[in-house]
Amino acid sequence: MQANGNSWVLITGASSGFGEEFARQYAEQGKSLVLVARRLDKLEALSAQLREQFSIEVIVEQVDLSSIPAAIELHERLTRRGITIDVLINNAGHGLQGPFVEHTLDQSLAMIDLDIASLTAMTRLFAADMRDRRRGHILMVASLLAYQGVKHFSVYCAAKAYVLRFSEALHQELKRDGVVVTALCPGMSDTGFAQNASQKLTPALKMVMMQPEPVVRAGIRALQAGRMSVVPGFGNKAITVLTWATPRRFHQRLMTQVMGT
Ligand SMILES: NC(=O)c1ccc[n+]([C@@H]2O[C@H](COP(=O)([O-])OP(=O)(O)OC[C@H]3O[C@@H](n4cnc5c(N)ncnc54)[C@H](OP(=O)(O)O)[C@@H]3O)[C@@H](O)[C@H]2O)c1
C-alpha cells in the first residue's frame, strides 16, 4: 500500500470499456487502483494483468452500484482499510435506447439509480474526504447527449444532463478546497455500450465513433489540468458547437438521424 504513499485511484465500471481503459492508463502512471464493477471474473483478470505488467497494487471490489447501501458499504470498507482515494472516476453507467413508454418503468428507474443516484452518493462520500484533506480529483463520465434531448434516449439524455450540470456546479464549489471536478462528455465510442443499450449503429455513428484510448486520455488530461469539462474528438466538439449555434428543432432532427432513432 505504500508504493504511492497511500494514494489510490478508484474507478467505477472498470470491468470493460472506458473503465478498463482508465485502469490501464492510470496503471501506466504507476498508480494504485481500486477497481469496482459487478463482473468479478473480468475485474480479477484485469487486475492480475495490471499487477504483472506494471507492478502496481490493485484492489478489486465487486459491487452493484445501483444499490446506494452497497456504495456506502464500499466507502466504509475502504475507510476501515485505511485506503485514501485521491482520484475518483465516476464512470459506471448504462444506456437505454427506444420509445420511453415501451421500456418498463424498472428499466428507466434502474438507469436513474446507477447514472444519477449512485454517482451522486459516490461523489458525496469521497468528495467529503477529499475536502477534509484539501486535495483530490473527481472525473464524471457524462455524454455528448447531455447537451440535448434526443428522441428515444429521453432518460439517458436527462441523466447525463444531470451529470454534466452536477459536475459543473461542484467544479465551482470545490475548487477552493483543493478538489478538482471535471466532466468528460464522450460521443459514440467503441465499447460494449452500444450493444448493452440495444443501440443501432448507423453509418454516421460509425464515422464519428472513437476508440476508448483517446477518449480516456482526453479525460485524464483535462482532470489533471483542472478543467471544468472536456468533449473529446473534433467531430464531437463540432456537434456541441452546432447545438449552441442552431435552433433546437434543427439540431434535434439532425441528432435523431445520426443516432438512427
Ligand atoms: N461508449 C459510448 O459510446 C459512450 C458515450 C458517452 C458516454 N458513455 C458513458 O461511459 C460510461 C462507461 O460506459 P462504456 O461505454 O465503457 O460501456 P461498458 O463497456 O458497457 O461499461 C459499463 C461499465 O459499467 C459497469 N456497470 C454497469 N452497471 C453497473 C452496476 N449496477 N454496478 C457497478 N458497475 C456497473 C459495467 O460493469 P459490470 O457489468 O461488470 O457491472 C461496466 O464496467 C457510461 O457512464 C456511459 O454512459 C459511453
Written description of the protein model:
- The chain has one domain: NAD(P)-binding Rossmann-like Domain (Rossmann fold, 3-Layer(aba) Sandwich), CATH 3.40.50.
- Helices cover about 50% and strands about 15% of the residues.
- The chain contains ten helices and seven strands.
- α1 packs across α8 and α4 runs parallel beside α5.
- The longest helix has 29 residues.
- The chain binds NADP nicotinamide-adenine-dinucleotide phosphate (NAP).
- The site of NADP nicotinamide-adenine-dinucleotide phosphate (NAP) has 31 residues, from α1 and α6.
How would you describe this structure in keywords?
7 strands; alpha/beta; 52% helix; 261 residues; 7-stranded parallel sheet; 10 helices; binds NADP nicotinamide-adenine-dinucleotide phosphate; Rossmann fold
List the helices and strands and how they pair.
Layout lengths: L7 E5 L4 H12 L3 E6 L2 H15 L3 E5 L5 H13 L4 E6 L14 H29 L2 E6 L12 H21 L4 E6 L8 H4 L6 H6 L3 H13 L4 E2 L3 H12 L2 H12 L2
Helix pairs in contact: 1-8, 3-4, 4-5
The structure holds NADP nicotinamide-adenine-dinucleotide phosphate.
The site of NADP nicotinamide-adenine-dinucleotide phosphate has 31 residues, from α1 and α6.
